[in-house]
């Protein structure tokens, strides 16, 4: 029987602003950063438009202003279109502005991911709307929690004022990135290696920083701290390598460490000042996950700076030591956006388990190569390889038959995978969205693709992606991921050709993981198979040694704990920081 | 005349989650037997601490040679407080009370959080260290004060509450310990003379102090190098203290809020936010709990050819200094009795230590574990005692444990010499 719709639903909604995007005013960096008039610097960004409810509550992001410390649920401010872009008198204490700014930054990061990946991107939990609590509790922490389908932002009284973590652009972008990456690559929270332990935080920092660097207002003010009154020109001395490294954008914040803003900003931005050396990654200091993450951030930021400086030179000195402000800002924005796209797209080309930085580099190079064959203009890929190399990281892909170094090889290149990939019993159309169809393809081709048949296998995702490449055509790929796992005891490891770490008891319970990302081209042919096999001995043995050394067999990191560790890593201990070393697990 | 004990008895009192060990060194007359009490605390409410104190008094012949309080945690010192067995223990007139250097008021143990808000200078490291410790205890106290908010149906005490309460200042126990001994209390660090050795009263007993280390020169250099991180971490605790001491305040005075009924679409989230806050606080309390554990005094007794190791709740960070020093590995390889650190947590008996104990072979090693389940995390990694550690203790030693035993005034007695 047909249901009669209620009267209110029978009308087509009148959308006040029918445009696909709308503009929102957000916090530019954090409240310590002021504009020329000494007011808190804000910026206007464009995000997807939608029919919002008060909160704001939208189709992917909803703000619920609940304070768990004081057990107060605030009522949402009325939703008025004219408020969105408006400058507010006191951004630091304006609760409704906090809600709007946080909502908009989360939406903008989500939109960046969707634009870069060419598809809708889910949160890491089952469901569509993430809840944002901008004043969640009294604490110097902010974190994403999958189980709560939420991002919680703490607040804290500092000497002069109340510190709101939701008013740190970096923090909001960083947490949103966790919520997205955890959905795309859930295996990265598992203990595996120093690189993987470092990746989540480093990637969150990279996205946060590059997001900020792609905002016009912030870059313009950040260049010379707004001291020049010229809207057109900037002093050449303010855009040298040293000046930029120490600028508001890349250097330490003025009031570093003053409170949470500084705490976050410091670790985020000081990476650029790490003097590159291939030896660093092997030192004890850089085995600690947050420290190690700084190397990844430094490699990417170094690339940003190199490309940006190269482009500034192209604009040239306009005389009297002045450079075009617009040109410098445009160059920063384009460079940041390009690198941000590379980083986000790389996730599709990364193995779903046991990631090392070399994998991420090859994934970035390959993702960019697919979109922009010609890298000669600004040399992003070459600069990235150089940047990573300066910290001792090489691309994981070592194929010599590729048009450029560091790209993943196609399956055809590998002799064992060359012939006999069976396509005719799977259906191209279904392969673009059906997990069972992908599994059938895997199972049919288990020998050629070296899929471990003794493992539990699960196809985690299948997504068709549409990206516009530099030649103006739509690049259509289908990206699928599968994971494999085997539960066993240490004494069973030799059945898989793996070595039991010295001292590990034979009855130690273990899980070993494998899996791959399958990239199909527009004709449904397998283009890349980026994987870590259960039977890849060197990597599995390294992982087992790492787990045995760190004792982290059963742990899955929580973002809350990760951030706490980040703040407390310099905690004054009675002795030097040490590797973890526990009996039995 | 005999110059060494003819027998050594260790009494492990069943205090629930806590430690209480009475070491008695028996001599041939005319020498008198001497007893040293190592810790007297519980985090469980069920132990009859006054009854146990009376039993200790009886067992030591109403005279203690010394009292050792390995660190400030309630599960190690609560018995010394006024309302517990403090007066009874004091009536045994210990010659001396031994504690870690971190308890020494002269070393700066009373530093306030003001020190945390000055940009770090290496010279201030000690002050900042103590200020952090004090801020942590203030934070723990605030959690205890707020704990009733998080209790579930039946008003049951939560793990968070128990753990936080273990980390509060325990001021009267601390004060009693300071005035309990006939001689002034000693506050010890790695390598210090223990103050226990005495050729007349306690002949034939050598005691080496293996921890905690002081803030060594090497560390100060490290702090200077990473001063921003050091300072931020310290400031974090200062801010936490400031936050909790600010008490109740209105974040947005006058803002419209739901007074009673929460809209149905928000109830699920509100419950989850409450739980998330609790979990976050638990994470912080765990960190400060570990921090205090690492102030534990580690003592090695050598008597009549046997070695008895009492590490309090020391974890790897505390152990590491001793283990990096020349001759210490050799000193430890033939340990005969090991008091399992931190009630069997996985952090307190690191491989680096356990693997030294040669007497695991043939189970010649004796291990003593005073513990109770359910106080710490239930997860496999955080559980105390750790299942895997208990397995290793059972396969590599003769394990005496209070696990699963009801609190009683009757101790488990072990003869070790």
Distance between the termini of chain B: 18 Å
Task: Please write the string of helix (H) and strand (E) elements of chain A.
Answer: EEEEEHEEEEHHHEHHHEHHHHHEEEEHH
Per DSSP, what share of the residues of chain A sits in E-state strands of 2 or more residues? Answer: 15-25%
Averaging pLDDT over every residue of chain A, what do you get?
A: 85
SS content category of chain A: alpha+beta
Quote the average pLDDT of chain B: 86
Uncertain ranges of chain B: none
- Give the overall shape of chain B, derived from the CA principal axes: globular
Which two chains touch over the largest interface?
A-B, 71 and 82 residues
How would you sum up the major sheet of chain B? 7 strands, mixed
Helix share of residues of chain A? Answer: 25-40%
Describe what this molecule looks like in 3D.
- Chain A has 585 residues and is an alpha+beta fold.
- Among the domains of chain A are: 22-184, Elastase, domain 1; 413-568, no CATH class.
- Chain A has 14 helices and 15 strands.
- Chain A has helices spanning 95-117, 169-184, 194-212, 216-224, 241-245, 260-269, 289-315, 325-346, 357-371, 380-390, 415-418, 435-444, 537-550, 559-568, and strands at 21-27, 42-48, 61-63, 66-67, 72-73, 130-138, 142-145, 150-157, 162-164, 233-235, 322-324, 456-468, 474-489, 509-520, 526-532.
- In chain A, the strands form 5 sheets. In chain A, strands 3, 6, 7, 8 and 9 form a 5-stranded mixed β-sheet that branches. A 4-stranded antiparallel β-sheet of chain A has the order 12-13-14-15, with helices on both faces.
- In chain A, helix 7 (289-315) packs across helix 10.
- The termini of chain A are far apart.
- By secondary structure, chain B is an alpha/beta fold.
């Amino acid at each position: 029987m047909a249901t009669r719709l209620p009267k209110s639903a029978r009308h087509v909604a009148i959308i006040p602003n029918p445009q696909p995007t709308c503009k929102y005013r957000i916090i530019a960096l954090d409240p310590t950063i002021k504009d020329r008039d000494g007011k808190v610097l804000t910026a206007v960004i464009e995000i997807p438009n939608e029919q919002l409810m008060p909160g704001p509550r939208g189709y992917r992001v909803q703000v619920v202003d609940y304070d768990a410390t004081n057990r107060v649920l605030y009522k949402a401010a009325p939703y008025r279109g004219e408020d969105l872009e408006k400058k507010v008198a006191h951004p630091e204490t304006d609760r409704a502005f906090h809600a709007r700014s946080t909502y908009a930054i989360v939406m903008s990061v989500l939109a960046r991911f969707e634009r870069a990946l060419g598809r809708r991107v889910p949160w890491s939990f089952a469901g569509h709307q993430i809840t944002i609590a901008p004043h969640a509790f009294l604490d110097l922490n902010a974190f994403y929690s999958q189980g709560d389908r939420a991002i919680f932002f703490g607040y804290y009284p500092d000497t002069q004022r109340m510190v709101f973590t939701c008013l740190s652009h970096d923090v909001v972008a960083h947490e949103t990135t966790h919520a997205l990456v955890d959905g795309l690559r859930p295996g990265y929270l598992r203990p595996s290696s120093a690189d993987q332990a470092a990746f989540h935080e480093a990637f969150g920092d990279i996205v946060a920083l590059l997001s900020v660097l792609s905002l016009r207002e912030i870059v313009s003010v950040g260049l010379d701290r707004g001291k020049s009154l010229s809207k057109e020109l900037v002093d050449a001395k303010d855009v040298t390598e040293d000046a930029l490294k120490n600028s508001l954008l890349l250097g330490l914040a003025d009031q570093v460490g003053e409170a949470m803003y500084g705490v976050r900003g410091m670790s985020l931005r000081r990476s650029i000042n790490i003097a590159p050396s291939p030896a660093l990654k092997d030192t004890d200091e850089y085995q600690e996950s947050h420290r190690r993450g700084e190397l990844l951030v430094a490699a990417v930021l170094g690339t940003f700076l190199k490309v940006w400086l190269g482009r500034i030179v192209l604009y040239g000195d306009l005389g009297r030591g002045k450079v075009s402000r617009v040109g410098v800002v445009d160059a920063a924005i384009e460079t940041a956006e390009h690198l941000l796209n590379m980083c986000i797209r790389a996730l599709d080309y990364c193995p779903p388990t046991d990631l090392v930085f070399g994998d991420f580099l090859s994934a970035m190079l390959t993702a960019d190569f697919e979109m922009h064959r010609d890298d000669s203009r600004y040399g992003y890929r070459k600069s990235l390889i150089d940047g990573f190399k300066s910290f001792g990281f090489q691309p994981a892909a070592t194929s010599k038959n590729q048009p450029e170094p560091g790209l993943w090889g196609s399956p055809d290149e590998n002799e064992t995978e060359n012939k006999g990939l069976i396509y005719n019993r799977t259906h191209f159309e279904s392969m673009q969205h059906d997990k069972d169809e992908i599994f059938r393809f895997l199972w049919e081709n288990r020998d050629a693709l070296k899929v471990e048949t003794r493992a539990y296998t699960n196809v985690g995702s299948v997504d068709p992606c549409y990206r516009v490449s530099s030649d103006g055509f739509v690049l259509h790929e289908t990206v699928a991921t599968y994971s494999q796992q085997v539960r066993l005891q240490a004494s069973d490891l030799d059945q898989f050709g793996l070595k039991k770490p010295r001292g590990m008891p034979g009855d130690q319970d273990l899980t070993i993981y494998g899996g791959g990302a399958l990239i199909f081209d527009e004709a449904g042919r397998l283009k890349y198979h980026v994987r870590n096999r259960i039977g890849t001995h060197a990597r599995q043995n390294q992982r087992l040694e790492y787990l045995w050394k760190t004792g982290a067999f059963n742990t899955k990191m929580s973002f809350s704990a990760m951030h706490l560790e980040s703040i407390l890593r310099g905690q004054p201990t009675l002795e030097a920081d040490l590797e973890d070393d526990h009996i039995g697990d | 005349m005999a110059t060494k004990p003819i027998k050594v008895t260790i009494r492990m009192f069943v205090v629930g989650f806590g430690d209480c060990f009475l070491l008695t060194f028996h001599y041939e007359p005319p020498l008198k037997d001497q007893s040293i009490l190592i810790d007297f605390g519980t985090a469980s409410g069920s132990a009859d601490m006054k009854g146990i104190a009376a039993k200790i008094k009886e067992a030591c012949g109403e005279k203690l040679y010394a009292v050792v309080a390995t660190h400030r945690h309630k599960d190690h010192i609560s018995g010394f407080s006024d309302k517990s067995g403090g007066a009874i223990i004091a009536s045994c007139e210990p010659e001396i009370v031994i504690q870690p250097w971190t308890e020494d008021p002269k070393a700066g143990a009373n530093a306030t959080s003001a020190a945390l808000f000055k940009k770090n200078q290496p010279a201030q490291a000690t002050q900042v260290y103590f200020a952090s410790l004090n801020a942590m205890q203030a934070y723990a106290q605030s959690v205890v004060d707020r704990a009733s908010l998080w209790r579930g149906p039946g008003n049951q005490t939560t793990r968070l509450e128990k753990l936080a309460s273990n980390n509060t200042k325990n001021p009267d126990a601390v004060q009693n310990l300071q005035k309990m001994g006939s001689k002034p209390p000693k506050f010890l660090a790695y390598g210090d003379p223990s103050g226990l050795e005495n050729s007349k009263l306690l002949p034939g007993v050598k005691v080496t102090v293996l921890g905690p280390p002081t803030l060594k020169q090497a560390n100060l250099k490290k702090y200077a190098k990473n001063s921003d991180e050091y300072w931020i971490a310290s400031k974090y605790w200062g801010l936490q203290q400031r936050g909790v001491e600010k008490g109740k305040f209105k974040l947005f005075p006058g803002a419209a809020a739901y007074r009673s009924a929460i809209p149905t679409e928000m109830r699920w989230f509100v419950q989850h936010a409450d739980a998330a806050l609790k979990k976050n606080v638990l994470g912080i309390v765990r960190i400060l709990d570990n921090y205090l554990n690492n102030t534990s005094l580690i003592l090695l007794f050598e008597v009549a050819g046997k070695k008895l190791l009492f590490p309090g709740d020391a974890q790897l960070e505390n152990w590491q200094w001793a283990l990096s020093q020349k001759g210490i590995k050799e000193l430890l390889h033939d340990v005969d009795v090991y008091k399992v650190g931190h009630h069997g947590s996985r952090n307190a008996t690191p491989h680096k230590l356990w693997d030294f104990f040669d007497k695991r072979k043939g189970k010649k090693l004796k291990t003593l574990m005073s513990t109770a389940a359910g106080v710490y995390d239930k997860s496999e990694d955080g559980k105390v005692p750790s299942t895997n550690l208990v397995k290793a203790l059972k396969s590599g030693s003769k394990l005496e444990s209070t696990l699963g035993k009801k609190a009683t005034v009757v101790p488990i007695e072990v003869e070790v010499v």
